[in-house]
Predict the 3D structure of the following.
Amino acid sequence: MARRTVTHVEAGTIPLAPATMTIPADRYCDRTRWEAELDVVFRRTPLFYGLASEIAKPGDRKALTVIDTPTIVARGDDGVLRAFVNMCSHRGARLVDDGCDSGRRLTCPYHAWSYSTSGALVGVTNRADFGDVDPAPLGLTRLPVAERCGFVWIGLAHSPAHDDAADVAFAASVDAHLGGYQEMLDHFDFGSWHVVATRRVEGPNWKLAYDGYLDFYHLPFLHRNTFGPDMSSRPIYDAWGPHQRMTAPYDQFLALNDVADDDIDLATIDGGVWTIFPHVSIAGFPVGTRGMMISQLFPGDTPETSVTIQNFVVADEPTDELRADAESKADFFEHVVRNEDYFTGNRIQRNLETGAKTEFVFGRNEGGGQVFHRYLDELLAAR
């Protein structure tokens, strides 16, 4: 890919889609379509949950609300990851707040029923007073979970019959979903990286937000007061099914003409933006020797809203100095996304309500958006 980029730098060109593409503008606000997207895309597709390093040791656990489902992923005493709905079997209370911690028991704050990290009910408060109950069917409700590429993946389809064997099948579905893209993601060795900061940003319809992650066209203009002046508006796209990588023909690639392939440090040329359908963007985060901002995008409570969790991760062992630097950079990127990208997206969302435009157009230089919307259409048509 880097060698191909050199040829584009020298020729002053970029690869272009065969033609422009239009989509109905109401796709960003139509409730029926949005509900279909929730069902077909987000409830049936493996979703990125976090770094495996966040839940690395027995007893480690992470809680996260995924769209409207409160979840917990915990590593059991046997070293196996298991995922659950964050809901007590007694009267439905959430067991823990969103975030990462560690412990051998998950204890309900309402009546203090407790569960092991394997999800089994192990403690009923005042059991003699409560009465006889069979703990076996009162364990936590399982969700599919798997580890791939140093990431934890989760599914939202829960079943009383779900067990460890079902997680093995889910791991195969993650492989099928990635469709070869894992060979690229494996290069980063994300399983050894560390989360040093997180931010939460509310935005417009999830597709409007995702369009921005696939769009270099806007960078020098929308971000002219932040990092935009140093950015190219001319993207180069690669796709593995719906998953994509975007970079640009920067002059710095010309230096590769004097370097043999075997002498190139791949970490110096794997920049750009990497996306994982349907809701992840991975972009460079300049802190330490190597950092990335991994954004998790989820639909909000209505078609017009979304929620993005920005995970700032580094390859280095975090020090106090690195964490302070990361917090400063995280503040900057939160500002960029909140006050530039999503500020604009929210105003687009309100404009849509006027009905003044019935179509949006994606140019030949916006091939990433074309790939995304075409794949999404095919997915919904096949349901």
DSSP finds nine helices and 20 strands in the chain. The chain has two domains: 2-43+186-381, 47-143. The CA atoms of residues 227 and 302 lie 31 Å apart. The chain has a mean pLDDT of 96.
